Amino acid sequence: MPRFAANLSMMFTEAPFIERFAAAAEAGFQAVEFLFPYDFAASEIKAQLSRHNLTLALFNTSAGDTAAGEWGRAALPGREHDARADIDLALEYALALECEQVHIMAGVVPDGADGARYRATFIDNLRYAADRFAAHDKRILIEAL
């Protein structure tokens, strides 16, 4: 039997984010996911998960400065410090929220850029993330977006 998680960033948008946990539980979901938890204290999200008997299936590392066109920073040469700070913060949330996996946001490669540099940066940051997450028996994910 397939298992589904309600994406609270996309579903139940008629309610404020923090109220969507109740809506997901009322709709019969046992798990949720969302894009980014960082506007809320992990303890606030954890309380909602516990209150509604939900597990957290997935969330993402920070997108960075979306107004400037960023959609993650793990593959951006010269932004390794930011990417690793994003990874460390995501791990803190994963531990607090008992989430087993986190998507590492790569970022956008500009047209005409040296793809090999971006790929090498991404691989280095994925190694960093893999080591950090594996030490806590957590998984990292990548998505072809």
From TrEMBL:
Q: Specify the Xylose isomerase-like TIM barrel domain's residue ranges.
A: 21-145
Any Pfam family matching the protein: AP_endonuc_2
On the tree of life, the source organism's domain of life is: Bacteria
Q: Which UniProt keywords apply?
A: Isomerase
Q: Name one GO biological process term.
A: glyoxylate metabolic process
Q: Name one GO molecular function term.
A: hydroxypyruvate isomerase activity
The keyword Isomerase belongs to this UniProt entry's keyword annotation: yes
Q: Which Gene3D superfamilies match?
A: Divalent-metal-dependent TIM barrel enzymes
Is Methyltransferase one of the keywords UniProt gives this record? no
UniProt xrefs under PANTHER family: HYDROXYPYRUVATE ISOMERASE-RELATED (PTHR43489:SF6), ISOMERASE (PTHR43489)
**Protein's UniProt name:** TIM barrel protein
Species of provenance: Salmonella typhimurium
Q: What is the lineage of its organism?
A: Bacteria, Pseudomonadati, Pseudomonadota, Gammaproteobacteria, Enterobacterales
